[in-house]
Design brief:
Distance between the termini of chain A: 63 Å
Shape of chain A: globular
Shape of chain B: globular
CATH topology of chain B: outer membrane lipoprotein receptor (LolB), chain A
Largest sheet of chain B: 13 strands, antiparallel
CATH architecture of chain A: Beta Barrel
Radius of gyration of chain A: 26 Å
Oligomer: heterodimer
Strand order of the largest sheet of chain B: 6-5-4-3-2-1-13-12-11-10-9-8-7
CATH class of chain B: Mainly Beta
CATH class of chain A: Mainly Beta
CATH superfamily of chain B: Lipoprotein localisation LolA/LolB/LppX
Chain lengths: 444, 279
């Protein structure tokens, strides 16, 4: 018996283990035929994505949406294409577009299949010039400033896509705008100045869509309209400096507010307008080992809105969603990120919006919590986001999952749950817009 | 053995590229001088190395799962080192969904100054400062952990020569074990112990076996295709294999396609502006 045990141990633990150990040092076979080749002066990339949207709940009657029951709420095909290249060592260009095709639409409780809507967005269309420490970008571009992920504080330039709040992908949140952006690096930090023209406002849901903000008051034949700003140009400047593990930024801007306000009514319906605002603000970020502290503030002053007094046939709503003249507003955020857990990133933000309206002061608070976990060597990622916005008394809980089948093929799933403060406008009209999204994306 | 960096999640791969190049750039040592060294001396020599005042490289990181499915990341890496600071910039060229993502780091010589790291995501169009992450976590999904990439402090380990001479690919090596001096080091790095094969001629670590605390895993590191480039010893292929209960779980292979040392690099390469405008 003893001999058998000795023999077994020799066989199992000597040559075999040595061979096994050597085997793990052996070169791993890899196929590098498909690695990126030097693209020279031209390159392209893109993706196609198919989204299936499922309404989890039956909408409430007062929500005035066309969908009357739970079920398929949308089937969207998306395509993104980006070209970039170099005209010279210091001159680069980039052009990108995005297409959306909708294949499902609800009309008065009836589901219709077929190409119901299509949209083409121009994203990037710019040329970069760099010379030493100076950089000039001219054309259609995204301008993203600030630290906050939940509230636009110093991020006053690029409008946002708010058609489906809490559901947009990261790359789709901000919209591009025509601008000239100049930046220079100095020993005292970097200076950036921007001039834009016809930048537009935040993109909101349209009549018939589930997050149409005017649904209680503006039903067909009512139709909202938008007044062109008196001044279509906008200017902004910022100074940024990094020192001792910290980033500091100060900015000033004169812009047309991306959040439209109600200016009045005509015979068709409400008229919206972008107030002219002057903004001063800043942000600060500091790393403390595995913690990142972030903060941001901005104070804005807006011109009073002209009120249109043309009488209308239908009575005007008694409590319009935005019928006040915004005069002064303070926005602030304090955030904390933590990366001390293995493969888990945590972030929290507390935000505040304080505005003065007709001599009164109103303060609203917001919270943002995010947890992101990756597994299977980053093939699988989970993210949970919880947003509470006191300004609209809205809570959104979004869980999303992405699985990388390969470098080119990604599967995605997400659920967005909406809730409003009891008795609030949001709770009455949008709380049943809970939705599940399934997607498949091919990148090239 | 490795320089100390702290980064978070995806972007830390940048450090991998720079650090792994650095660990292989060592001065030569005469055989007589080598015979009188103890384990601590040898590992100190490994830690003290010249890796060029600047370097720029194109490389590929391949992640291979147990089903032999590959994921490939193409990278460009730039590094400049002065007395005060070492700056590194990594730009991802593929796959398509991370193309244009870049990571910038400043490692200051003065220990009183915290290291700086920033990440640029094309999807956000914004440069973000990033905090450190748990050192035992995986670097961008690879088998290299933050502890591998950031490096472990020389003082955190006790060293012992396990074998005075052992041939690896025909080259004579010391075999040296490294044991953490405290539980804190184990908790921080996730490593219980490691055994390294160090070439006697140039102090390159060519093989290592690392016992991992979590999941009772073992990692096998190897460095091959070692050649002198611009006077600097460089391993052009680095490999890390994660094994659990004798079964391979996942592998990562890092290959340098091209590397140049001591070629002047523009100072404005290592700035947030460069990350946004692209190189």
């Amino acid at each position: 018996m003893k001999a058998i045990l000795v023999f077994a141990s020799v066989v199992l633990f000597s040559p075999v283990s040595a061979l096994a150990e050597e085997d793990f040092f052996a070169s791993v076979e890899v196929d590098l035929d498909n690695t990126a080749e030097d693209s020279g002066s031209f390159s392209y990339r893109g993706y196609v994505r198919q989204n299936l949207k499922l309404g989890i709940e039956s909408p409430r009657e007062q929500s005035n949406v066309q969908r009357y029951e739970a079920g398929v709420n949308g089937l969207r095909s998306e395509g993104f294409l980006e070209f970039s290249g170099k005209l010279a060592p210091d001159i680069r260009w980039q052009l990108s577009t995005k297409t959306e095709l909708d294949w499902v639409q609800w009309q008065l409780g009836e589901q219709q299949w077929g190409l119901t809507d299509s949209r083409l967005f121009l994203r990037d269309a710019y040329v970069d010039f760099s010379y030493g420490n100076n950089w000039l970008r001219v054309g259609h571009q995204v301008l993203a400033w600030g630290e906050s992920e939940s509230l636009a504080i110093t991020d006053v330039l690029s409008p946002k896509d708010l058609r489906e709040p809490g559901q947009a992908e990261l790359e789709d949140i901000r919209e591009a705008l025509p601008a000239i952006s100049m930046s220079t690096i100095t020993p005292f930090g970097s200076l950036t100045s921007v001039v834009t023209f016809a930048a537009n406002a935040n993109r909101n849901a349209e009549q018939g869509e589930e997050f149409y903000l005017l649904s209680p008051w503006c039903l067909p034949p009512c139709l909202e309209s938008y007044k062109k700003p008196d001044k279509e140009w906008e200017v902004a400047a910022k100074w940024a400096y990094s020192i001792a593990g910290s980033d500091l930024m100060l900015m000033a801007a004169e812009v047309n507010d991306n959040e439209q306000q109600l200016a009045g009514y005509d015979e068709r319906g409400p008229i919206f307008y972008q107030p002219r605002s002057r903004v001063i603000g800043g942000s600060f970020a500091k790393v403390l080992d595995q913690w990142l502290l972030r903060s941001e503030f901005a104070n804005s002053w807006s011109d009073r809105l002209p009120v249109v007094t043309i009488p209308v046939q239908d009575p005007a709503p008694s409590d319009p969603i935005a019928g006040f003249d915004k005069v002064r507003e303070l926005r602030a955020m304090l955030g904390l990120d933590y990366g001390g857990f293995e493969n888990l990133q945590l972030a929290y933000e507390f935000s505040l919006v304080k505005f003065h309206r007709d001599g009164q002061v109103e303060t609203n608070y917001g919270h943002f919590l995010s947890a992101r976990h990756s597994a299977m060597n980053d093939r699988l990622s989970n993210q949970l986001r919880l947003i509470y916005m006191g300004t609209v008394e809205m809570k959104v809980l979004r869980w999303s999952l992405e699985y990388q089948m390969s470098d080119n093929l990604h599967l995605g799933a997400s659920v967005a749950l909406y809730e409003g403060d009891e008795g609030s406008y949001f709770d009455d009209y949008f709380a049943t817009n809970d939705v599940a999204n399934l997607s498949i994306k091919y990148s090239f | 053995m490795l320089k100390r960096y702290k980064f978070c999640s995806l972007e830390r791969l940048a450090t991998l590229c720079v650090i792994l190049v650095n660990i292989l750039c060592l001065p030569t040592l005469s055989a007589d001088e080598g015979q009188t060294l103890n384990a601590a001396d040898i590992m100190l020599k490994v830690d003290q190395r010249y890796s060029g005042d600047t370097s720029q490289a194109t490389s590929v990181l391949v992640l291979v799962d147990k089903r032999q499915r590959q994921r490939v990341r193409d990278l460009e890496m730039y590094r400049v080192e002065t007395k005060e600071v070492e700056k590194a910039l990594i730009v991802f060229r593929s796959p398509a969904d991370v193309e244009g993502t870049s990571y910038l780091s400043y490692e200051w010589s003065d220990p009183a100054i915290a290291d700086d790291s920033w990440l640029y995501l094309p999807a956000l169009q914004k440069v973000k400062r990033v905090a450190s992450s748990e050192e035992s976590g995986a670097f961008m999904g690879s088998d290299f952990s933050y502890a591998d990439i950031n490096g472990t402090d020389y003082e955190d380990y006790r060293y012992k020569i396990e074998a005075v001479s052992e041939l690896v690919d025909g080259v004579d090596c010391w075999v040296i074990s490294s044991i953490p001096v405290s539980e804190d080091v184990i908790d921080k790095t996730g490593y219980i112990s490691s055994k390294s094969w160090v070439r006697k001629d140039n102090f390159v670590v060519v093989k290592a076996i690392i016992d991992v605390k979590k999941g009772k895993q073992t990692k096998y590191f190897s460095a091959t295709d070692i050649e002198k480039i611009d006077g600097v010893w460089t391993a052009k292929t680095l490999q890390m294999v994660t094994v659990r209960r004798g079964e391979k779980q996942h592998s990562s292979v890092f290959k340098i396609n091209e590397i140049v040392y001591n070629k002047p690099l523009p100072a404005n390469f290592f700035d947030a502006q460069a990350m946004q405008r692209g190189l």
